[in-house]
Amino acid sequence: MPSWLQGQMQRAFYEKNHYQIKLLNQCWFFYREKHCS
Q1: 19 vs 35, which has greater pLDDT?
Q2: Nearest CA-CA partner of 11 in 19, 22, 1, 21
Q3: What Pfam family is a match, any one (predicted)?
Q4: Confidence bin at 37 (pLDDT 50/70/90)
Q5: Which three-class secondary structure state does DSSP give residue 29?
Q6: Cα 19 → chain centroid
Q7: How far apart (Å, rounded) are the C-alpha atoms in residues 12 and 22?
Q8: pLDDT tens digits for 17-33?
Q9: Residue 8: how many other CB atoms lie within 10 Å
Q10: What is the rounded CA–CA span in Å between residue 29 and residue 32?
Q11: Single pTM value for the model
């Protein structure tokens, strides 16, 4: 996982921002699909 995404994730979890956590999870899923296939 890229470091910028990890930072965003940690902040979202710290702030208990469920919307942002969901959004970041989707970003990570699409990112992984593109780069690992």
Answers
A1: 19
A2: 21
A3: spore_CmpA
A4: low
A5: helix
A6: 11
A7: 10
A8: 999 999 999 998 998 88
A9: 18
A10: 5
A11: 0.66
* Whole-number Å distance between alpha carbons of 3 and 37: 21
Q: Determine the residue type at 33.
A: E
CA of residue 34 relative to chain centroid, distance: 15
DSSP labels for the chain? --HHHHHHHHHHHHTT-HHHHHHHHHHHHHHHHHHH-
Q: Which amino acid is at 17?
A: N
- Can you tell me the distance from the alpha carbon of 34 to that of 31, in angstroms, rounded to the nearest whole number? 5
Write the single-letter amino acid at 30: F
CA–CA gap between residue 12 and residue 33 (Å, rounded): 22
What lies within 8 Å, CB to CB, of 11 at 6+ separation is 17
